[in-house]
Every structure is written in C-alpha cells, then in structure tokens.
Amino acid sequence: MVSRDDRVLHILKILNKHPRISVKRLIELTGESVSTMRRDLIVLEQSGKVKRTFGMVSLLENTNIEFASPFRYRTHVEEKKVICRLLARRVIKDNQALFIDPSTTTAYLPNYLSERQNVKVITDNLQFAIAANQMTNLNLFLTGGSLRPNSNSLLGNHTIQDIAMFRPQLAIVSCSTLDNTGAYIADMDQADVKIAMMKSARESILVADHTKFQSVNSDYIRLASFPAWSTIVTDRAPKDQFLKHMAALGVKVIYPGSK
C-alpha cells in the first residue's frame, strides 16, 4: 500500500509540471480513488501548497509552510545523498568536531562517514543520531530539548543552552530556500537552533539542493546573509551569476565536478 506521504509527493511532482490541473486528470495520472484524492488534496490545501476551486487544483508557488520531517525526508533523496557524499569527501576531516542541524538532508550523512575517524558530532537531529548509533568512529552528543511531533528533532531553550556549551570547528546547516543575499526558513524553532549552531561554531557550511535556489523567496525567516557561510554544498552547479556573486563574497561553492 502506498503511504500518504508518497501519494502527496507524487501529486506535487505532477503539479510542478502542470501548476493548474483538473482533479479528474490528477486521478487519471495517479490512479487514486476519488475519496483518496479528496483526502490528499485536503492535506495539501491545509499545508498551504495548493488551492482547490471548482474541480481544479492550483499549485501555490509563494508559500512559507514547512512540511513535516517524514515527508521532507522522502523528497529529493538522491540530491541529498549527493550533498552528503560531498560533505564526507571534501568538507569533514578526521578529528573534527561539528554541529549537525535538524534537517532531513544531514540525516543521510552517517552513511558516508564510515571512513572518517574520531569525528565528534553535536546534534539535535534524531534521524542522524539513530543512523549513527552503531558507528564507533563517531562520538555523538545528543542535545536536550522538546520533541515536537513529526519534527524528528529536539527544539527549544534547552537545545539552545546545550549548543552554547560547545565550540566545534564546523556547523553544517540547511535552509528551505536561498537567493543571492542569504538563506531562509519558514520555522522559527528550527531557525533558532540553526542560528545558535552558527554562532557557536568556528565556521559554518550551508547545504542546499538545487530546488532551493530561488530568485523570489517565500520563506520569511532569514538565517543569515552571505558570507555568513564559508562554503555552500549543493548537488548540481548553480547559475553562473550566483557562482560569480559568491566568488566575489569569498564563499566557496562545492558541487559535483567543482574544483
């Protein structure tokens, strides 16, 4: 049986190609029943991703809604794996200490750290912690905090206090969107944790797959402006204009095939 998250993801992929489409056509393309499609569209509408009108569905481009972690974990999986592979090969070194933020991208990172030795990780990311649990080459510190439903991360004042105890070499953080000026997110609690990690670390690394590069930004919480991050790691080459702008700011951009 296909899960609701997978069904919703399939609908969103169709809407990315056809931003306005009839419900009837969506049912034909997905093979869903009328009742299942109605329920899935209600979920998307309540999340602020689509609008339903008179048998039609429209994708809302400018949204600032943060999807639940289980849903985001299943989206753009290959892109996230490319980013994690680049982090392990070109950014993270033996004997380093680092913050790992509460993102679904970094949740895939443990699979690529098997060759690194004596890496100390401070994180509030439960998915990362579970994946790294059996790895003897990693020393893991899990922060305290409040577990919010469907976030797979620990958040709040206790998390911030624990982060302030450390001064690692790196903070690896993600965002929801970014443009030429900075990176953004739609969730205040997540933003507080990421900003605290960046403040305490000696150097900050931004991870973002290619879908997060936007000229018109809908996410309303600015994590920081460039060059707050020394490096951006992404899964494919950004536009030349962006690369030139980052080079002028002294920000390195790492992607497959980059120097």
Automatic annotation (TrEMBL):
Keyword RNA-binding found: no
HTH deoR-type domain sequence ranges: 4-59
Reported function: Repressor of the lactose catabolism operon. Galactose-6-phosphate is the inducer.
SMART domains for this protein: DeoRC, HTH_DEOR
Keywords for the protein's UniProt record, in alphabetical order: DNA-binding, Repressor, Transcription, Transcription regulation
Protein name: Lactose phosphotransferase system repressor
SUPFAM superfamilies: NagB/RpiA/CoA transferase-like, Winged helix' DNA-binding domain
Keyword Lyase set for record: no
Alphabetized GO MF terms: DNA binding; DNA-binding transcription factor activity
Pfam families: DeoRC (PF00455), HTH_DeoR (PF08220)
